[in-house]
Every structure is written in C-alpha cells, then in structure tokens.
Amino acid sequence: MYGGATEYIISFLGEKILNTRWWDYSDKFLNLNGRVCLVYCVFWGILGLYLLKVFNPKVDKFLDWVKLKANGKTKLLKAIVLTMIIFLFLDFLATGIASDFYFTRITVENDLPVANKEKVVEKYNYLYKENPKLANIIYKFWGNEVMVKTLPNATIMLENGDLVLAKNYSPDIKPYYYKFKK
Prior knowledge:
Elements: H1 2-18, E1 20-21, E2 31-32, E3 36-37, H2 38-70, H3 74-109, H4 117-129, H5 132-142, H6 144-150, E4 155-157, E5 163-165
Antiparallel strand pairs: 1-4, 2-3, 4-5
C-alpha cells in the first residue's frame, strides 16, 4: 500500500511540477489515473514484505556489527550518514532542475503544444538566450545526450493530454540499455 501511494504521489508531483510523466499505466488492469495499477501495487507489496522479512534483519545485523566495531566513534558514523543524506538530497535537486531545463529546451526547440507555453518560452529565453554563460553550463552538464541517457523514458505532456517521449526529439542519441522487442 505504501509503495503504491508513494508511486502515485511521485507521478502526480512530476506531472504537476515538471509537466512530465515518467510512467503511464493507463493500459493496465485496474489503474488509477494511469499512475498506479493493481499489478504493480501487488509487486510493491511483495517487495516490501521481502525487505522486511529478509533484507531488514541483515541490515540490522550489519548495523549492530558496525556499532560494535565503531566502539565510541558514533559521531564519525553520524557525520558520514549526514553527508550521504545531504549528497542524495543535492542529487535529487540537481536531477529535478536538470530535467526541467531539458523539458523546457525540448518543448521550445520542437515547438511542442504544452500547457502554459508562454511561460515555457519565457523560461527558455531566460536560460538559453539571455544568459549565454548559464546556457553553456547547462549544455555542458545537462545536454541532450546526458539527459536521454539519464531519463530514457521521460515523457512530456502535451496540451491535449497526450504524452510524447522526450528522446524522440534526439533520435541519434541511444540510451544506455538495450530494449528487447515484444
């Protein structure tokens, strides 16, 4: 239940904040707005049970071992954990910002009919036309090749509600994985 709820919330936020959808279960049995479906909710439940019954005891055992070996060095361990949390949060922010740059770029350069097109064009002009130094940084770290390889299945929602794969606008760039034909 928690996995399905999390999946729904993440999908909803991605659609509302970034105007994109990372997955679509509209064609699946018993789906809810295409964001979640029964099959994957069951999968998340089974995964959750596995994590609680099999994986979590091993993690607890490992943590007990670390505590035993740390022997009074818990401040160092807390600092390491805090550093990792900060790093993951910064990575999360960078990914969100980079995907926003990418979707803005794809939308304007391909004249895609999206909701609030005027705001998207305004943002594009600010990022890529008015600030050439910023545009160079964006292209250097988050160019189309990096973004297609990082988010190969990311979609952009058009004004009529249709979804288009962002990578379709960079067909010469191949993702990291091999897609098997059905």
